[in-house]
Amino acid sequence: MKSTQPILAPISRALIATGLALLSGIAAAQIKIGVTISTTGPAASLGIPERNAVALMPRSIAGVNIEYIVLDDGSDPVKAVQNARKLVSDDKVDVLVGSSTTPNSLAMIDVSAEGKTPQISIASSLSIVDPVDAKRHWIFKTPQNDAHMMTAMSQHMSDKGVRKVGLIGFNDAYGEGVITQFSRLAPVRRLDVVVVERYARTDTSVTGQVLKLMAANPDAILIAASGTPAVLPAKTLKERGYKGQIYFTDGVVNNDFLRVGGKDIEGSFLPVGPVVVAKDLPDSNPIKKVALDFTKKYEDANGKGSMNSFAGHGWNAWLMLERALPAAIKSGAKPGTEAFRAAVRDNLENIKELVTTHGVMNTSKTDHMGFDQRARVMAQIKDGGWVLAK
């Protein structure tokens, strides 16, 4: 009987080659999302819930697998740049998500632009995405702009009869962004900024700054800071007997801030994204359902009461990608290629009527955030929690 080996061998080799080609195609089709956020350092109370939100993101879309590479930048802009370079150059990610703070996100812009890789920041400053120049062509963000929040805050102050305002904020891009936006809007509301002080995120005392604030006798003081370091000025003001109204930014909306602040922050006001007080929103508000659905998903995984504003910002990065990635796949461009990254970027720039946990998003060539005034409400810290301000 004749051997079948000469016949089977070519067939086997062909089958093996076909299988390897298929496996190669599957591997090539995998989408890589690189994430650098601040899970340690002064901004850890922002980065940890953002990391928890990433853990909830789907592992495939439109039949294509997704790999998430998550790194900690320690709240340090230098480390954020190092992480971004590794993710773009070594890991060849299709999208960058991060970082948690404005200084870190701004520092990453050059890396994203040079690598022609779309970046979705989870930090708030307008300067991250505006103006949409050659570099910011690649940059998007999920949090509301400072101007949205300062519009709500300045209106609230005016309605409450505030006339003189003192400001104290971080001596970095976040603090400057808030101070600049508030100072521009203050005259429109007939608010007089009587004193401006600054401090570092890592400072352990702001006594000197607080004494200057109190000497100006403002009706209200805005603390332009984020995370738990924002407690320090409030605590010092209370210790020194300040009786005026204290305002914070949306950068403090997490449980660690409430825990550390305790009675020193009780009664303070702040602008927030609707997700923070979703249960208090009218049923007619389209954001309510999306926000409550995410809250349940997040708290099922992390415990009752654990969801906060920053988790929502992290999740909104996925909601943006959920719109952009299928369209990029449909274009025929392959993940891992410059053409695919460009397709993702183009579709991130054309998101229409996307209801997120914080607002309704409509991006464009000149607006890489896309929210309108529906993306903020005023809240008050009451009984150790957040409630919709009356």
Can you describe this structure in just a few lines?
By secondary structure, the protein is of the alpha/beta class.
Strands, total number: 15
Tell me the domain tally.
2
- What is the element string, with H for helices and E for strands? HEHEEHEHEEHEHEHEHEHEHHHEEEE
The class by helix and strand makeup works out as alpha/beta
Q: Count every helix, treating DSSP H or I runs of 4 or more residues as helices.
A: 12
CATH architecture of the largest domain: 3-Layer(aba) Sandwich
Radius of gyration over C-alpha positions, nearest whole angstrom: 24 Å
- Strand ordering within the main sheet: 2-3-1-4-5-6
The percent range for helix content is: 40-55%
CATH-defined topology of the largest domain: Rossmann fold
CATH superfamily of the largest domain: Response regulator
Question: What CATH first level of the largest domain would be assigned?
Answer: Alpha Beta
Fraction of residues in β-strands: 15-25%
> Largest sheet, if any?
6 strands, mixed
Mean pLDDT: 93
| Terminal CA distance | 94 Å
Q: What is the 3D form?
A: globular
Poorly predicted parts: 1-11, 17-28
